[in-house]
Design goal:
Length: 465
């Protein structure tokens, strides 16, 4: 079979690249080694983790806020098996949706491991049969896998990655998380809400360290209320599966050894690009020392007809980043001139309160020596937040000191994940803080905090604090 565009990997990068390629008139194929489409995001990432976060948040509210809302119930009991079953249903519906989209767009789906025979030929090995297809262009979208530590190999039993953490058979009594990043905070919250004693061991002196430092501070305050214990500036030195428990040793700032015991230890220290079995060398490609496939600004590899997108290349490992890159490559192949503004790709942590960020952090502006002003507004001053009992949180807006152009927006609070789209829109149009402050925002909404933070950044004239 001969195709115009073949995509290896059906995650959010790959399947979106396939749809856009088909929309633009290319004869398109997608290769996926697993039985279901959707990649990490749909099967073991974004979607299942959000399903578990939603279920456990309902449980947490039933336990903690229903009474005050005037809803009387008997003490709720968490049914982890049912939560996981519902999660599996959500995943199935979402993966089936991608299957439907492939059919609708007349994209040929090949199941099996795709590997290069040469730069235009790909062998697909499924165990049942091997076949070869040829393609004018190839897009590599093979994603990533969990990283581990040399002394903390993921055994999938007691020393686990996010994949196993989404499938546990029991609620752990003690759950240790190595890494206070996005996965650590999301899945740590899941188990803390349903009764586990959760300890987060983080190497740096703050959690979610790539985000604006105000966000990490506020998230730590909020999640301590769930009972999460934080061990910052701790370097894990050994992790041992002792059969029924895991023994973890870490070194604190002073060099003292601290011991932890847990039923399960989640290793959440990042992910690494995945290229195993791709036969890159047969196409004249290799990975860099970080395991990534190198690409130029057009996402083209060093081989003329081969492109790469998503987690397997540089940049944030985010589904929506992979999607934008899939669209960019397809449109370029069709002769268009698309552009991605990488600084305006938002990042979200789906804890409660949620954390969402776009643009420069305060630390980055300081480092660049760029003059800026900052305006903040707390959720507790919002009528909407009091009504819903979601008073934890703050919106922080950073704007250029001279021009007032918004340079960064950082939100922790209820529905921050949805609110950040307003920040992206404003910044894509290079709005000033005053532009946003002068727009009408419906009352009562959480978004009023964005307007007020912009007022605070403009002339320090927030109205409701
Ligand atoms: P992937 O989604 O990893 O897909 C790659 C696909 O390629 C896989 O299906 C794989 O089987 C296939 N493949 C690999 N090699 C071959 C081969 N040789 N032949 C055939 N097929 C192959 N991001 C967000 O933006 N929001 C979130 O809320 C979020 N939550 C997450 C939660 C968790 C627990 C995890 C682990 C990740 C989360 N992410 C989230 C990150 C997100 O899942 C990734 O950034 C995204 O999936 C990357 O997409 P991709 O298309 O590059 O690769
Ligand atoms: P991460 O990079 O977000 O966090 C890893 C954390 O582990 C960091 O805080 C880091 O300082 C810490 N760390 C690293 N080595 C350590 C060590 N030896 N001991 C203790 N701490 C250590 O990575 P993650 O949470 O594993 O997530 C992986 C990827 O998946 C991320 O790139 C993220 O973008 C993506 N993801 C996104 C979402 C989302 O968008 N909501 C959710 C989950 C995952």
């Amino acid at each position: 079979m001969q195709y115009d565009v073949t995509i290896i990997g059906s995650g959010p990068g790959g399947y979106v690249a396939a749809i856009r390629s088909a929309q633009l008139g290319f004869k398109t194929a997608i290769i996926e080694k697993y039985d279901t489409l959707g990649g990490t995001c749909l099967n073991v990432g974004c979607i299942p983790s959000k399903a578990m976060l939603d279920s456990t948040e309902h449980f947490h509210n039933a336990e903690t806020t229903f009474g005050e809302h005037g809803i009387k119930i008997n003490k709720p009991k968490a049914d982890l098996g049912q939560m996981i079953k519902r999660k599996a249903d959500v995943v199935k519906q979402t993966c089936d949706g991608v299957e439907y989209l492939m059919k609708k767009n007349k994209i040929d789906v090949h199941h099996g491991v795709g590997s290069f025979v040469d730069k235009n030929t790909i062998r697909i090995s499924s165990g049942k049969e091997n076949k070869e297809i040829t393609s004018k262009y190839v897009i590599i979208a093979t994603g990533s896998k969990p990283a581990d530590l040399p002394f903390a190999k993921i055994d999938k039993k007691r020393i686990i990655s996010s994949t196993e953490a989404l499938e546990l058979k029991e609620i752990p009594k003690n759950f240790v998380v190595i890494g206070g990043g996005v996965i650590g905070m999301e899945l740590g919250s899941v188990y803390a809400r349903i009764g586990s004693n959760v300890t987060v061991i983080e190497y740096m002196d703050r959690i979610i360290p790539t985000m604006d430092s105000t966000m990490g501070k506020e998230l730590m305050k909020a999640t301590k209320k769930l009972g999460i214990d934080f061990k910052l500036s701790h370097k894990v030195t050994s992790v041992e599966n002792k059969g029924k428990e895991v023994l973890i040793k870490a070194e604190d700032k002073k060099g003292n050894t601290v011991d932890f015991k847990a039923d399960y230890c989640l290793v959440a220290i990042g992910r690494k690009p995945y290229t195993e079995g791709l036969g890159l060398e047969n196409a004249g490609l290799k990975t860099n020392d970080r395991g990534q496939i190198e690409v130029d600004e057009h996402l083209k590899t060093s081989v003329d007809n081969i492109y790469a997108i998503g987690d397997v290349i540089r940049g944030a490992m985010l589904a929506h980043k992979a999607e934008e890159e899939g669209v960019l490559v397809a449109e370029q192949l069709a002769g268009q001139k698309p552009h991605i503004h990488y600084k305006l790709i938002p990042g979200v942590v789906y804890t409660w309160p949620e954390v969402a960020s776009v643009g420069y952090t305060e630390e980055e502006l300081k480092e660049e020596g760029r003059p800026y002003k900052s305006g903040s507004f707390p959720f507790k001053a919002l009528g909407r937040a009091r009504a819903s009992m979601d008073t934890d949180g703050v919106v922080k807006v950073l704007a250029d000191k001279e021009t007032d152009e918004i340079l960064g927006m950082h939100i922790i609070g209820a529905r921050a994940a949805d609110m950040i789209a307003a920040g992206v829109t404003a910044m894509e149009y290079r709005a000033s803080a005053e532009d946003v402050a002068r727009m009408s925002h419906a009352h009562p909404t959480y978004m009023e905090a964005v307007k007020e933070a912009c007022l605070a950044a403009t002339e320090n004239r927030a109205m409701h604090v």
